Amino acid sequence: EDFGCYVSCFLQNIDIMDDKGVFDPAIATQSVAEELREESKPEIYACYEMRKNEPVDDLCKTAFGMINCLKERAPKLYEMLGIFRAPGN
């Protein structure tokens, strides 16, 4: 639960998710490092399409679900985010 809330804050701070839990795949795509952008774009949009109609009653769960989708579909992107490893690892 705490991790989902951390991810929610992270995504909101970089404007990828708003305070209502709406994910913006265009901003997410633009925030990806250029060398991974084209490869990641279809996966980002796929996760968005799969999750966009889910009710948002918990921002933490919504953010966690989106990140889990990206972890499964775009592992390179997930690793690039760097927020999921302890410092020094």
Automatic annotation (TrEMBL):
Gene Ontology MF term list: odorant binding
CDD domains the record matches: PBP_GOBP
Stored InterPro entries: PBP/GOBP, PBP_GOBP_sf
Protein name per UniProt: Odorant binding protein 1
Organism of provenance: Conogethes pinicolalis
Lineage: Eukaryota, Metazoa, Ecdysozoa, Arthropoda, Hexapoda
